[in-house]
Amino acid sequence: MSKIIDSGSTSNGSSKSKSPPLDNVIDIFTRKPLSENYNNKLIRLSPELDGLEMLYSNSEHPDKLFSVKILAWGLRASGEVVGLVPWLSELIPCDEINDPLNGQWQGYYDEGVDELFYSAPLHKIVELETAADYYEYQCDSDREIIQEIPDTIGTHAVLSADKFKSITLKEVVSWRLHQDGTISGMLIDDSKMFSTPVLPGDDCLFETDECEDFRYYFQHHIANKIKSNDPEALAAISMLGES
Q1: Contact 156, 171 (CB under 8 A)
Q2: Which one of 37, 139, 154, 231 has the lowest number of neighbouring Cβ atoms within 10 Å?
Q3: What are phi and psi for residue 59, nearest 5 degrees?
């Protein structure tokens, strides 16, 4: 890596949002102030289409950096823009990854120009803020869908009903952002698929959150290794079952 750049801090794009809850009100589940949960809430997504990656390290390989394709960029109610990656069982901000081997986020990476950076690209910030200003939704429910974007990095979901003695791999077609800021991966219900290709918003899609057998998300190269019965990948699946 030959350069380190900082693309600048985000501006406040939350002028149209409702006032956040008071700092002295605590969420009983997260044990954090409601205002913090509100500010971290995602309100708009933009797919990553130029192949930018997240870099991370872990304690088992302290001298190595690992990369994961960024799926999308998300605008928080606070105005902050963060990269998002499928990680274990959810789509999370890159700087919040929680790796079983004490993984730590090390920054964003543009392989095409060999640059490491730590803030969202300016063009994504502008795109998200402009879109958030243009689209204003009046929602009746926290689970109402306010946006759906296609999966562009080949994410697969692993389903298992017997602690990984047997598994099913299904491609993630799209991701839905709900009014409450949560994001759900969308899978195909084969019994309801009547035409192809299946596109975001299709009636045959269902949320991973609604599937009792859903376990984890995997990058496409890992999913392909599992499909080809790669010994290392199968061993990793076995370890997941034991945990």
Answers
A1: yes
A2: 231
A3: -70, -25
Query: Which among 56, 72, 62, 41 has a CA at the least distance from the CA of 178?
Result: 41
Condensed to tens digits (0 to 9), the pLDDT of residues 209-221 reads 999 999 999 988 8
The percent of residues in the chain predicted with pLDDT above 90, rounded, is 61
pTM: 0.82
Distance CA 84, CA 96 (A): 10
Residue 154 has pLDDT above 60, yes or no: yes
Residue 144 to residues 136, 207, 227, Cα–Cα distance (Å): 13, 13, 35
Domain boundaries, the chain: 1-136, 142-243
User: Residue 117 has which token pair?
Assistant: 């950076």
Both tokens assigned to 49: 């289409």
